[in-house]
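Worked Example 4.2. Consider the chain below.
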Amino acid sequence: MATIFSKIISGEVPAYKVLEDERFLAFLDVFPLVKGHVLVIPKEPVDYIFDLDPQTLADLHTFAQKVAVGLKKAVPCTKVGVAVIGLEVPHAHVHLVPMNQISDMNFSNPKLKLEADEMEEVAGKIRQALKTEAGS
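Applying the procedure from the previous section yields the following structure tokens:
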């Protein structure tokens, strides 16, 4: 079954990618809770995150940690919150949300609608922070 995430992985649907390797992909959520909200997914199409094999689950979180470090440098915030909900898209994914207050992680809040240029600017800042982090 093709999902929006499998279409992003294949390139059928564009995304504001911030980091990618052969097994994982991180990109901006197009319906973010706050500016800089990132989704991290395995490229393997598994619906439920806890159906991933233990090593892939651990590697997904290690990849998400790398993204979170760059995200925190690129988007001013106190911390980067982490959530796994898994009901919106039947493909395992982790939400990374820049937080300055606990309500920033409230998934009942109205979602933001950012313009394409603003999304690309945020994605570019995160990519640059990740490059800088990798170089240190």
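The chain has three helices and five strands. The radius of gyration is 14 Å. Compare this with Example 4.1 before moving on.
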